Structure formats: C-alpha cells, structure tokens
Amino acid sequence: MPYINIQVTREGVTREQKAELIKGATDLVVRVLKKDPAATFVVIDEIDTDNWGLAGESTTVLRARQAAEVQRS
C-alpha cells in the first residue's frame, strides 16, 4: 500500500493541479512498481510560506526580496 506525500507551498495551487498531481503520482507508482491504484494513497500538504525555508530564510522573505528586485529592474 504505497503512501505518497507531496508538499507544496500554499501559493494558489488549483484543485485541477492537485487532481493532476494525484493522478500522475498514482500512475507512476502503478507503472514503475506495479502497485494497485486502489491501494495507493496520495496526500498533498500545502504549507504556509512562513513555515517553509531555504538558505536560512522563510520563503515569505525570499519571495518579498525577489519581488523587490524585479521592481528595481
């Protein structure tokens, strides 16, 4: 019984995109591992950008800096 956990930042992922991720991940496990799709669980966790970090900073701070740099260009 495969369990697939997909984590993304909460930044407007649509219902349709989530459905495509669930189907695509399930299809991959079925094709590669020959698992039963009826026994394959896919969970998508949406994480606030304040709770997701890279290089010592939250994604919120990184995105704000990137936006400021684009405005200066």
UniProtKB/TrEMBL annotation:
InterPro entries: 4-OT, 4-OT-like_dom, Tautomerase/MIF_sf. The active site is at P2. Residues 2-60 form the 4-oxalocrotonate tautomerase-like domain. It is an enzyme of class 5 (isomerase). Pfam families: Tautomerase. It comes from the Bacteria. GO terms for molecular function: isomerase activity. NCBIfam families: taut. Belongs to the 4-oxalocrotonate tautomerase family. This is Tautomerase.
